[in-house]
């Protein structure tokens, strides 16, 4: 018992946040997984679907689209979400063939949901994306779904404040594995702005200790593009300690991986963001310590705001966040029209 307990004790002397030394800033469509193993990134995908008298079988349509998504480099989580929404759509509408999907069936599906308009909009976008691929494959002749929209009132989400980050870090026990891991996770989110899903996929190979860079390849990023971000001395120091601690835990439990953020049993935290252990920990800390805006999205927005306050223009901030366009970045920063003009100069 003593041996097992020891692997969770951090031997390094870490008092950065207690003493104020730190710089202080972050399947299925038919209820089966028949599509989970199809294709690889180097497979040529045929787009021919057998047409029955009633139309194109939806199972066959989705199977090919999933193959195409895998070839295009879509993340597994994205593919899983698409499949889940198609399961919901089919259950609500009893649609079996592609040709049965109409404006009416889409509205019927939306009306069957007991969720917020924002959630409806997210699901609708996924369905539209699938139908768009059907159009590109020549299976439908018009984009009839383009006129279907969900009105969502804009809700401004604020970034975390530096003081709240420092309060949380000062309360975590960095002499324990969980406290150290969570503190490094918070700093990584706040000082690099990476998404929580990306955080769970970070491995030791992504850290360039010599040049003090976080080097992320497109496979772990939402926009699939290479991104390099600077790391400060404090975060580099903590990452080295965390890696040493990870090695102890993995060795004890016989785990073979090189993830930066692992569970107390040495396994990966690479799961859907709402189930991510770090997200759950942040929610717990927020309630326990009365910190109302401690969550992965707030930390990411806090990073963006810190870049803005330090003189970065909108284009640079957008690049650092991995956004597809400046409009998304503007929403992150809650900028009005005049502020956007200033940020672009």
Structure notes:
The protein has 15 helices and 3 strands. The chain is mainly α and 345 residues long. It folds into 2 domains: 58-147, Tyrosine recombinase, N-terminal domain (DNA polymerase, domain 1), CATH 1.10.150; 157-343, Intergrase catalytic core (hpI Integrase, Chain A). Strand 1 (207-208) and strand 2 form a beta hairpin. It has a 3-stranded antiparallel β-sheet, with no helix packed on it.
Keyphrases for this structure?
single chain, 345 residues, mainly alpha, DNA polymerase, domain 1, hpI Integrase, Chain A, 3-stranded antiparallel beta sheet, 3 strands
N to C succession of SSEs: HHHHHHHHHEEEHHHHHH
Helix content: 40-55%
- CATH overall fold name of the largest domain: hpI Integrase, Chain A
Largest sheet, in brief, is:
3 strands, antiparallel
Range of strand content: under 5%
Do you know the CATH architecture of the largest domain?
Answer: Orthogonal Bundle
Structural class estimated from helices and strands: mainly alpha
Supply Rg.
23 Å
Task: Please report the distance between the alpha carbons of the first and last residues.
Answer: 61 Å
User: Count of helical segments?
Assistant: 15
Compute the number of structural domains.
Answer: 2
**Widest beta sheet: strand line-up:** 1-2-3
Weakly predicted, low-confidence segments: 19-44, 335-345
């Amino acid at each position: 018992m003593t041996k097992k307990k020891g692997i969770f004790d951090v031997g390094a002397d870490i008092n950065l946040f207690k003493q104020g030394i730190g710089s202080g800033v972050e399947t299925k469509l038919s209820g089966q997984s028949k599509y989970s193993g199809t294709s690889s990134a180097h497979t040529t995908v045929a787009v021919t679907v057998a047409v029955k008298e009633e139309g194109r079988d939806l199972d066959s349509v989705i199977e090919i689209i999933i193959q195409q998504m895998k070839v295009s480099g879509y993340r597994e989580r994205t593919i899983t979400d698409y499949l889940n929404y198609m399961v919901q759509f089919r259950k609500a509408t009893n649609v079996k063939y592609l040709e049965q999907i109409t404006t009416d069936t889409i509205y019927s599906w939306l009306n069957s949901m007991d969720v917020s308009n924002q959630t409806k909009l997210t699901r609708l976008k996924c369905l539209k994306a699938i139908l768009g691929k059907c159009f590109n494959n020549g299976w439908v002749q018009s984009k009839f779904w383009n006129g279907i929209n969900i009105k969502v009132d804009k809700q401004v989400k604020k970034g975390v404040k530096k003081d709240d980050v420092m309060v949380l870090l000062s309360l975590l026990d960095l002499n324990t594995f969980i406290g150290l891991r969570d503190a490094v996770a918070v700093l990584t989110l706040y000082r690099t702005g990476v998404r929580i899903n990306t955080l769970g996929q970070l491995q030791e190979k992504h850290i360039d200790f010599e040049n003090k860079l976080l080097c992320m390849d497109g496979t772990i990023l939402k926009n699939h593009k290479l991104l390099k971000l600077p790391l400060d001395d404090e975060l580099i120091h903590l990452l080295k300690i965390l890696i040493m601690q990870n090695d102890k835990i993995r060795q004890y439990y016989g785990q073979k991986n090189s993830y930066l953020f692992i569970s107390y049993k040495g396994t990966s935290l690479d799961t859907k963001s709402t189930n991510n252990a770090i997200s759950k920990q942040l929610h717990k800390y927020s309630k326990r310590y009365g910190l109302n805006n401690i969550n992965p999205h707030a930390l990411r927005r806090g990073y963006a705001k810190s870049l803005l306050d330090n003189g970065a223009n909108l284009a640079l901030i957008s690049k650092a966040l991995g956004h597809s366009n400046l409009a998304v970045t503007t929403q992150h920063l809650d900028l009005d029209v005049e502020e956007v003009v200033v940020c672009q100069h």
